[in-house]
Amino acid sequence: MSPARRIWAGYGVYALGFASLFAFWELASLYLVSSVLFPPPTVVFRKAVVLARSGVLFEHLAASLQRILIGFVAGSLLGIPIGLAMGSFVPVRKLLEPYTEFLRFIPSVAMITVAVIWFGIGEASKIFLIVYTTIFIVILNTAAGVSAIAPNKIRAAESLGATRSQIFLHVALPATVPYILTGMRLAMANSFTTIVAAELIAANEGLGKMLWDGRLFMLVDDIFVSLVTLGLLGFVTDRAFRWTIYTFAGKYSPAGG
Amino acid sequence: MPLVSFHDVQKTYRSLQGDDYPAVERFSVDIEVGEFFCLLGPSGCGKTTVLKLLAGFEPPTAGRILMDGREITGASRDRGVVFQGDDSLYGWLTAVENVEFGLRMRRVGKSERRERAMRYLELVGLRGQEQKYPAELSGGMKQRIQIARVLANEPKMLLMDEPFAALDAQTRSLMQGELATIWRAARTTVLFITHDIDEAVTLGTRIGVMRAGPRSRVKGVIEVALAGARSRTDDAFLRYYRAVHEMIRDEVAASLAQARA
């Protein structure tokens, strides 16, 4: 079976898993807890339909997704060349490691305050935070990928007559791609955490804002709609990312060596 | 003039504790054009060090290594290397793309390099596997890709670092036979590193036996005057086997004693 088809076959089992998740939730909500504070999925789904029809749900969803995508792409585009340079040249690594090793321990959630002070509560602060979330993970994974290249791959290229720039382009870069993709995937997952936190604190729309309003006005169903949307959005984005890798760059997948 | 000559070559490594380890010292040998030179020695005697120096991956600490009378200053496509493991193959390239790598780097046209790569894939018995990725191939097949990749690049010399050591006995024996056939047709000069006497007598036109390390050097060279395909059960083969065994026996014992100490 081709990797892409294997993923499709896996979807059947995933559907079953999801069905059981919602079934347990329904039972727990109806018989174990039976409280308005823990609505069953059927109620949440009905509320989701209402919010979707009115367009409110999509407004919030689109706002969050757009912020994540812009920040994620920008962070990756910045992080990959920096990571490649740090992995390839020791002086560059020594120069930039203080930045990466210092900043990566300051969680992006902690940066929300300064982001809002610097960029206001509009789009700029959110995108800054997602770039901040993405860039260090991508840099670290890319640099690690470069240093994990088997020395014999480089040596073989040298004795086959490749120049230094050819070795970078035709050996070091493709050998690092699986690490870059892994870094991007981790960054994508972390971006969801960051965006919700940022929208909880300061935003006019977004799934985080929806959560905050739900708490403010005691709209428990709305809170759960937002939570389920976040879960599904993260799941679908991650699957799409993996599917793209397998379909268009299967030979770069970590399993392919 | 020999194709390659080592003049009193020394290579000293420094450990993390700062101790010097002289892997080879006063290592001298000449390799003539067209010969299949086997460098045989107990494990840890510095055979691979010699290969790395000749390949140009590492500079010698002292002494000179000449090829065609010129000192070796770094890796070059004159000396193609077949590595022991499969980590030198490019996992994102198919078998045929791996084989044409050197030609692609030299900007040989697409159709010409594909045609040449296919010819060498056929020579090593990989016809029909050309579109597979290394991860889809067995250990023996991966070594065949390495050999084809080096041959397609048409180097002056082949350096082989125990290329069959990681293979099972059947595949190894098969690959030795095929390599011998390929070599008899191509007559490219080969430096072949091995710790296996049987392999050295099967393949080599000359066998250089190394002393146990540290400070290893060539203890003696045995010329193998066996023409054509060799059989392990021939009297002549066994005579050479015994002669090499005699020479290496003490070195293996010394290397074992050192490992225990």
Description:
The complex is a heterodimer of chains A (257) and B (261). With 257 residues, chain A is an all-alpha fold. Chain A folds into two domains: 1-38; 40-256, MetI-like (MetI-like fold, Orthogonal Bundle). Chain A has helices spanning 3-33, 41-54, 56-88, 90-103, 112-119, 123-147, 151-159, 164-201, 207-216, 220-249. In chain A, α6 runs antiparallel to α8. The mean pLDDT of chain A is 90. Chain B is an alpha/beta fold. Chain B has two domains: 4-78 and 155-260, 3-Layer(aba) Sandwich (Rossmann fold), CATH 3.40.50.300; 89-154, no CATH class. In chain B, β9 (206-210) and β10 form a beta hairpin. In chain B, α4 packs across α5 (139-152) and α7 (197-203) packs antiparallel against α8. Chain B is globular. The relative contact order of chain B is 0.18. Chain A binds chain B through residues 150, 152-153, 155-163, 166, 170-171, 174-175, 177, 251-252, 255-257, and chain B through 55-57, 74-77, 79-81, 83, 85, 87-93, 101-102, 104-106, 133-135, 149-150, 153, 155, 159.
